[in-house]
Amino acid sequence: MSSLSTLRVKIFADSADRARMLELSAKPHVQGLTTNPTLIRRAGVTDYRAFARDVLSVITAKPVCFEVLADDFPEMERQALEIASWGDNVYVKIPVTNTRRASSAALIRQLAERGVKLNVTAVMTLGQLREIVPALNPAAPSFVSVFAGRIADTGIDPVPLMARAVEILKAANTNSELVWASSRELLNIFQAEAIGCPVITITADILAKLALIGRDLSEFSLDTVRMFYDDAQSAGLSL
Questions:
Q1: CB-neighbour burial class of residue 119 (10 A; exposed 0-12, middle 13-18, buried 19+)
Q2: At a CB cut-off of 8 Å and minimum separation 6, what does 151 contact?
Q3: Which CATH number fits domain 7-213: 3.10.20.30, 3.20.20.70, 2.30.29.30, 1.10.1200.120?
Q4: Which of 68, 99, 109, 163 is the most exposed place for a label (fewest CB within 10 A)?
Q5: pLDDT value, residue 5
Q6: Has this prediction a pTM greater than 0.90?
Q7: What is the largest CA-CA distance in the chain?
């Protein structure tokens, strides 16, 4: 297994907690940040614009992704243009469809042609990916986020699909990078690395486990046994 220092896959922190975002952005191994409306709601953010501008006043050198909030495409476009104006390091997240299953491909093409840096999000099938790729502008950098973790949640191994997605984007010769999104465990970093996926998004909870990379498993076993014993004693359990 590779060490963190030798990994080629870029790690993006997935968070909407301001303090955590600023903390993680200062770490060399975190090369970008992503947010989404669900994370923002959980963080208690009520003023999206103010929150984003505050974060971007500090994080200026690494990509930061903010998502549109609308469901109809004209309003998505308006919001996307505003979000893009917040900073040169901003990538606008556009869902692959709206809630009525209508494809966002046309909107993605319009925004890409205007040079908006995009992150096409919530992609889960190769069919969706193939529809999106022609809409991307080779002159504008972008990301395509395939939700490997959610694919795995359905009982499907995401690795073959993600490997094929890497090939599709490479063959298209776009200026777009595939993102292994919605990661579920630290192992996903090394799975993404093995297939040549350029970027992976990781939550703060999973990032906290980076110190475990390369841990001696015999020692890890002993620590686990100690934890169980200590917890039993602390709880006053007896038989």
A1: buried
A2: 124, 158, 161
A3: 3.20.20.70
A4: 99
A5: 75
A6: yes
A7: 70
